[in-house]
Amino acid sequence: MKTRNTLMIGIMLILGLTLMGMQAAATSPRYMKLVYEPQTQTLKVTILHFSPAKTVHYV
């Protein structure tokens, strides 16, 4: 029983430390262009952004 409790506490401690250590990393856009058209009051934005994981990355 004592061994099981120690094992569970160890697993919970490792899991907690792993989750606390996760952090997000971001890369800035490579190019950004903003064009405002006063006649239509429209803002057009062009952004070029590199990502090594293009299938799971969203801007």
What does this structure look like?
The chain has one domain. Strands 1-2 form a two-stranded antiparallel ribbon. Helix content is about 35%, strand content about 25%. The longest helix has 20 residues, at about 1-20. Strand 1 (about 30-35) and strand 2 (about 40-50) form a beta hairpin. The model has no long low-confidence stretch (mean pLDDT about 85). About 0% of the residues are buried. The chain is of the alpha+beta class and about 60 residues long.
Topology:
Layout: H1 2-21, E1 31-37, E2 42-48
Antiparallel strand pairs: 1-2
Give a quick precis of the structure.
Helix content is 34%, strand content 24%. The protein has one helix spanning 2-21, and strands at 31-37, 42-48.
Query: How helical, in percent, are the residues?
Result: 25-40%
Number of strands: 2
Strand/helix succession: HEE
Query: Total domains, how many?
Result: 1
Structural class call reads alpha+beta
- Order the strands across the largest sheet as they lie in space: 1-2
User: Low-confidence spans: pLDDT under 50, at least 5 residues?
Assistant: none
Shape: rod-shaped
- Looking at how many chains there are and whether they match, the oligomeric state comes to single chain
Radius of gyration computed on alpha carbons: 23 Å
